[in-house]
Amino acid sequence: MAKGRYVKRREGMPPAAILALCAVALAAVIFAGSALVRAHRNKPVDTPPDPAMSNPADPGTPTPVDPTKPPVETDDVVARRASLLEEAASLYERYFYDEAIALLEQAGELKNTETAALLQDVRQAKDALVKYDSAQYYHIFFHSLIVDPSLAFDGDYQATGYDQYMTTVSEFKAMLPLLEEEGYILYDITQLAERADGKTRMKEIWLPEGKKPLVISIDDVNYYDYMKGDGFADRLDVDAEGNVVTIVNGEATYDGDVMPILDAYVKEHPAFSWQGAKGVVAITGYAGAFGYRITDLPDYDEQTQKWMLEKTEAVAKALRTSGWQIACHSYTHNQYWNKKTITMEQEQYDIGRWLGEIAPYVGDTPIFISPFGVFFEADDARFRYLVDHGFWIYCPVDSRMPAYCKNDFFIQGRINLDGLTMKHYPERISRFFFDPAKVLDPARPK
Fold first, then answer.
1. Angle subtended by helix axes 113-127 and 97-105, to nearest 10
2. 117: containing domain
3. Which pLDDT tens digit goes with each residue over 54-100?
C-alpha cells in the first residue's frame, strides 16, 4: 500500500509545484482578509442601512428612490409652515394682499402645495378688486353708548336728551351685522382723500365687488360728570393684552361703548374692516380725555395727576394701534359754535387749548369733528383758521353724507344713528342702511 502511494505521488505534481500552489492559496486568503479589515475600518460607526438601497425581499438588490415621493420633513419645518400659513391667511382675510403675497413668495424651504394654493387665492382676490366709482360715501356717528337703559331712561331731566341723542349698547350691537350684510366695510377716513402741494383730491379706492366704504365716528368720548350714575361707562382703559376696555362701575368690560364692541366684532368678522380700520374717536378738552380730567390737574394730587396723564397716553396709543383715529371736537363745545357766533378770539382760545393741552397726550390729528355738527362756508375766516392749523378733514352733520375735496380741505358729512333719527326720521336711515325698527331698543321711552 505504501508503495502505491509513492507511485501516485511520483505520477502527480512534483513536491515543488504543490508547495507553490499552497503558497498562492495562502496569499489569496491573506489578501482577502486584509481587504475585509480595510472595509471594516473605513465603514462609519453605527451607520444605519440605506432604505433606498435595500430590498427586504432580496437584501442584495438595491431599491431605487421614488422621485415623486416628498422627503420626510422635520417637526420644526411642519410647525413653521403652519405658522406661516396662519399669518398669511390672517393678512389675506383682512385685505393685506401685498403683505400676504410677499410672505408666501419668500417662504423658502417652507414652500409646498399648500403655500402655493394660498398664494394663488390671494393673487386672484387682489386681481378681482374693483374701483369704487360712486359719488356716495358713508359716515355714521354716535355718542357714548347707554349701557343700562333703566338708569338713562329713568324719567329725570336728562332722560329726554339721552333718548334723543344717544344709542344703547343693544342697538349698536344689532346694527353691525345689518351693516355688514348690506356690503359696508369700515374704511379709514384719512385714506379717502389726500393732500399735497396745498391741494386735496379724492384717493382711488379698490374694494371687493359690492363693498361700500363706511366711516364710523363717536362724539364726546370724555364721559362727562353729568353722565355719572346714568348708565354709561366711567372711562376707557387698556387691558394687559393692549385692548381698549371700558370701566363700568369700577370693573373692566368689553361692551361698555362703541370702541371695544367694534374691536371685538372686527376680530370675529375681519372682512368687515378694510385693513383693520375702525373709526374716529372725537374728544373735547374742557373735561379732559377718555374720562381722565387732565385739564383740571391742579384739582388732584401729584400721584393722581401722573396716573391720569399716563392713562390718557396709554388709551390713545392703544386706540391708534388697533385702527382708530382720534379727532378734535373743539375744546369748549360751547354754544357759540352751535349758534355760529364764535369770534376769532374765542376760536383761537378754543383751538389753542386743545392743541396745547390735549394733542400732546393723544397725538396730532388732521380731523375736526364739528361741535353740534356746524358747517362753515369755505371762505369763512373761522373755517380757514381750522384748516390753517392742520384740520383739513372737516366733518359736519348732514344726513345726505356728502364727501368732496375743495381747495386744500376735505368735507365728509355724517348722519346720526341715535334715538332722534331712528324714532322720528327713520327714512334717513333706511334710505341707505336698514330699517331702524329692527334694532330699536324696547327700553326706550314710548
1. 150
2. 75-128
3. 445 555 555 565 666 667 889 999 999 999 999 999 999 999 999 99
